[in-house]
From TrEMBL:
Taxonomic lineage of the native organism: Bacteria, Pseudomonadati, Pseudomonadota, Gammaproteobacteria, Vibrionales
Keyword Iron-sulfur: yes
Species the sequence originates in: Photobacterium angustum
Record-level Gene Ontology MF annotations: 2 iron, 2 sulfur cluster binding; metal ion binding; NADH dehydrogenase activity
Domain of life: Bacteria
Keywords assigned by UniProt, alphabetized: 2Fe-2S, Iron, Iron-sulfur, Metal-binding
Residues that, per the record, bind [2Fe-2S] cluster: 80, 85, 121, 125
Cofactor remark from the record: Binds 1 [2Fe-2S] cluster.
Cofactors named for this entry: [2Fe-2S] cluster
Name of this chain's protein: NADH-quinone oxidoreductase subunit E
Gene3D superfamilies in the record: Glutaredoxin, NADH-quinone oxidoreductase subunit E
Family: Belongs to the complex I 24 kDa subunit family.
InterPro entries: NuoE-like (IPR002023), NuoE_dom (IPR042128), NuoE_N (IPR041921), Thioredoxin-like_sf (IPR036249)
Keyword Metal-binding attached: yes
Pfam families reported for this sequence: 2Fe-2S_thioredx
Amino acid sequence: MLTDQERAHLEEHIAHYPEKRAGAIYCLYFMQDKYGYITKPSLNLVSELTDLSTTQLDELITFYTLLRRRPVGRNVMRVCDSISCHTRGAKKVLEAAENATGKALGEIANDGSITVLPSICLGLCDRAPAALINDDRVEGELTPERMRMILTELAEEEIKLSEKPDYQNIISMLTPQDAPAKPNEEVM
């Protein structure tokens, strides 16, 4: 699952803390970055490294919304549905996303390109309703029309990428290595 170098890196990181458990979130993010989500074997390994039970780690994952136990699309869009965004139309924006992708929130689009997730406050209340794409792109003052446009842009970017010679190699690297049989089923 992890190379010797990756495991040593995690052990070295954990060693900086007075208690092993303090390194749990870093280790969970590391596993998520490697596999696209936190797999059961990843959870077991983090449990071993941090001396926390898998139940305790699941509690952390449940609390921190940026951690995932299920596979997601190659792009992840988090749309705020907290009070400021809700009062400014987040519900209609989320409905537009479902209609545009043909999938319920949290599910992977048929082409694997995107997962749209409702999210707690993103701290972008002045730009409500707002979204965060791939944890590094902010979109604010969303409307259903703007949501459809953004999803179309992301799909077009996927098409352009698919025309590049190494695209399939890149996609295979980004695809979780031990994905469950049902892509939207929680991995236990």
